[in-house]
Amino acid sequence: ASLIAVVGMVVFFMLCSWIIRRQLKPIRQLARSAQYIADGNYNELLPYSDRHDEIGLLQDRFKKMQHSLQKQVDDLKEETLRLSQHGNMLRAAYDKIIETDEIKTSFLHYITGQMTVHTENVDKSATKLCNGYQDLSRTEADQEVDNIQRRSHAIVELLDLVAHCTESEIGKEASHE
């Protein structure tokens, strides 16, 4: 009698273990899928379940969560790509602005250098006229006055060029605002 009871208990234990494993199998599958998704693999296909109990409901909700996560990741990738492209465009525009500023600076240095040469010549002629007017012949004085006029005209033309470029830049900046 005790042998039958022991064999019955062993059979009962084995039957209970089999039923528990069978009932917990979908939960173990969900746990594996959850870990796979937690590792960043959002395309893991969850096993189909024809269960209509809590486990089946959990699997359905898990699938919806998985699709929602995949959509968000796809949206983030798309937004990252868009922002990267926008950043590249801004970087290119910034580089162009820096290049343009360098050209403007070179231009202004060149114009300033040209104006300096003309200004020094005007100063020399004016000094010569002021300090040695009595010693100069009429022709030499006329040449110095003519030199002052030509150099002054050149300076005015250079200033007009700078003013024109400045007006043009102001117009461009105003149109961009």
Oligomeric status of the shown chains? single chain
Structural class: mainly alpha
Cα(first) to Cα(last) distance is 100 Å
- Give me the strand/helix succession: HHH
Largest sheet: none
What's the helix count?
A: 3
Radius of gyration: 45 Å
* Percent range of helical residues: over 70%
Spans of at least 5 consecutive residues whose pLDDT stays below 50 are none
Q: What is the overall silhouette?
A: rod-shaped
- β-strand number: 0
Strand content: under 5%
User: How much is the average pLDDT?
Assistant: 87
Explain how this protein is built.
- The protein is rod-shaped, with a radius of gyration of 45 Å.
- The chain has 3 helices and no strands.
- About 5% of the residues are buried.
- It is mostly helical and about 180 residues long.
- The mean pLDDT is about 85.
Sum this structure up briefly.
This protein is mainly α and 177 residues long. It is built from 3 helices and no strands.
Features:
3 helices; 177 residues; single chain; mainly alpha; 0% strand
Task: Give a topology summary.
Elements: H1 2-38, H2 54-132, H3 138-176
Helix pairs in contact: 1-2, 2-3
